């Protein structure tokens, strides 16, 4: 048992011992079918914290000769598969995390990787080993002697391609990958290749090291979509087990629509269950910087599209032209596609559109907006909690003041009286309300007005339900009367607790007034 060659099952053991374990072992059934076929090279590029590394640890434990994982897999889904024993712990496994090499060997990374692999191979196979031989030739000789093929797992395979500007180094690295996955020798020794990365495989001119891989991305992952992230049914089961409100969990962590499946961020859901607290667990400061880098780009329509998404809308994106390279952003579509692959936007393939997937990611955008051209928007968002409390407490003057500020801020980008702009104003003014409310546009919006229903969820405490209308050129009291006349039989039908009616109006001078009544 080594570090890189035939590693043990320690990583998967930790996952199995964790109080929140969701069984994803059926992925192994899919991988078993790929072994020894033309489709035996698989590349998974998903956002961070979507379970790629956990899957790699599970693959180690299942295939590696470095351990006997029978007890570890007992009771799992894969254990009932007829071919379970056929593949379990029957392979020589090499597992590399490229990012750990990159941290200390940026100039000689390929040499260091090969050196460390050779050290471990030499311990088990000294007679077949010659340091002057190509790594592919060494692996082939070992296979010829033992008859045991290799499973090769590489985490963060794209680390070098993403971070290096040295084209000679990138070429050397890709040639190394070619030797493992596409050389003549690999046709004999390679049973399965499994690589993970953040971005899909970059199309590099004159390089073909990875063009034999089948790719699974944030845009399309069928048939293995459900093995990366938590499915809705899995989250419902966790919410029941930990006595957590499912609708609030959905608002915070749902939203990734991949191949028609709603996938949840598994890390964030696990943390919320463990601590019994809904919060933003994607607190990586580099994430905020990454978002900011893309939304600050000076491409026509980008700012409008970001604001549309922040207010709950979707925008069309052409994902086809993206070169799978964060350094090669040449259009608004490239910027948005990059954010999709990084997990900061969701993608609806049916309508070819991007959107902000959930409240947790929306809060990451909120942090990212605090610099540059977005400072006014960030300043307005920072007052959202004050606005919500002012609304609940009936402070009509403060509500009118803050809605007027939001209206001026967001319509400096959009049209002042446009129905979508008015919807945007209300959504952005109450930007933090989704932490406690399900927000529904109750009536079809028309020119000069927009209205929303705020339906409190289980974690809302004493916060009341609210109907909020924003209208042009009518008094706030008239708006309240019209709300009563409509009676709102939709989302609040049968609702028996406290309901606030909030009427907000503005005139041609852009002056806002507010009236609030309890119903």
UniProtKB/TrEMBL annotation:
Coiled coil: none
Entry superkingdom: Bacteria
Pfam families linked to this entry: AAA-ATPase_like (PF09820), PDDEXK_9 (PF08011)
InterPro entries: AAA-ATPase-like_dom, P-loop_NTPase, PDDEXK_9
Signal peptide interval: none
Gene3D superfamilies: P-loop containing nucleotide triphosphate hydrolases
Chain ranges of the AAA-ATPase-like domain: 19-203
PANTHER family (alphabetical): AAA-ATPASE-LIKE DOMAIN-CONTAINING PROTEIN (PTHR34825:SF1), CONSERVED PROTEIN, WITH A WEAK D-GALACTARATE DEHYDRATASE/ALTRONATE HYDROLASE DOMAIN (PTHR34825)
Protein name (database record): AAA family ATPase
Organism in which the protein naturally occurs: Faecalicatena fissicatena
């Amino acid at each position: 048992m080594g570090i890189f060659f035939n590693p043990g099952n320690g990583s998967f053991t930790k996952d199995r011992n964790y109080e929140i374990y969701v069984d994803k072992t059926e992925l192994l059934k899919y991988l078993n079918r790929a072994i020894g076929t033309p489709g035996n090279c698989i590349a998974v590029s998903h956002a961070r914290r979507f379970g790629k590394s956990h899957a790699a640890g599970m693959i180690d434990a299942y295939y590696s000769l470095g351990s006997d994982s029978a007890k570890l897999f007992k009771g799992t889904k894969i254990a009932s598969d007829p071919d379970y024993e056929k593949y379990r712990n029957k392979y020589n496994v090499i597992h590399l995390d490229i990012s750990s090499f990159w941290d200390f060997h940026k100039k000689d990374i390929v040499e260091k990787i090969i050196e460390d692999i050779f050290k471990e191979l030499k311990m088990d196979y000294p007679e077949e080993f010659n340091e002057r031989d190509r790594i592919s030739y060494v692996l082939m000789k070992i296979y010829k002697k033992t008859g045991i093929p290799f499973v090769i797992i590489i985490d963060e395979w794209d680390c070098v391609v993403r971070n290096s500007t040295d084209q000679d180094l990138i070429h050397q690295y890709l040639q190394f990958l070619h030797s493992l996955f596409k050389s003549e020798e690999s046709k004999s020794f390679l049973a399965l290749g499994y690589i993970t990365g953040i971005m899909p495989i970059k199309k590099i001119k004159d390089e073909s090291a990875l063009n034999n891989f089948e790719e699974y991305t944030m845009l399309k992952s069928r048939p293995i979509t459900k093995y990366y992230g938590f499915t809705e049914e899995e989250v419902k089961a966790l919410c029941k087990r930990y006595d957590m409100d499912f609708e609030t969990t959905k608002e915070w962590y749902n939203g990734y629509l991949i191949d028609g499946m709603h996938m949840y961020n598994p890390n964030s859901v696990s943390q919320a269950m463990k601590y019994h607290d809904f919060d933003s667990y994607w607190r990586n400061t580099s994430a905020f910087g990454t978002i900011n880098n893309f939304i600050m780009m000076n491409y026509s329509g980008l700012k409008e599209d970001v604001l549309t998404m922040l207010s709950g809308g979707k925008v069309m994106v052409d994902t086809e032209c993206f070169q799978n390279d964060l350094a090669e952003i040449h259009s608004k579509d490239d910027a948005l596609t990059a954010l999709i692959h990084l997990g900061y936007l969701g993608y609806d393939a049916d309508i070819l559109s991007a959107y902000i997937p959930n409240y947790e990611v929306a809060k990451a955008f909120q942090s990212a907006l605090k610099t540059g051209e977005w400072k006014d928007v960030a300043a307005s968002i920072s007052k959202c909690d004050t606005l919500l409390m002012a609304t609940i407490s009936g402070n009509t003057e403060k509500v009118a003041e803050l809605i007027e500020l939001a209206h001026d801020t967001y319509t400096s980008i959009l049209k002042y009286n446009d129905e979508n702009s008015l919807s945007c104003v209300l959504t952005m003014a109450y930007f933090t309300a989704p932490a406690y409310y399900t927000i529904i546009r109750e009536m079809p919006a028309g020119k000069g007005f927009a209205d929303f229903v705020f339906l409190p969820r289980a974690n809302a405490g004493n916060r009341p339900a609210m109907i909020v209308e924003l209208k042009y050129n009518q008094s706030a009291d008239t708006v309240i009367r019209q709300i009563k006349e409509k009676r709102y039989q939709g989302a609040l039908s049968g609702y028996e607790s406290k309901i606030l009616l909030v009427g907000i109006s503005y005139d041609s001078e852009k002056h806002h007034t507010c009236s609030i009544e309890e119903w």
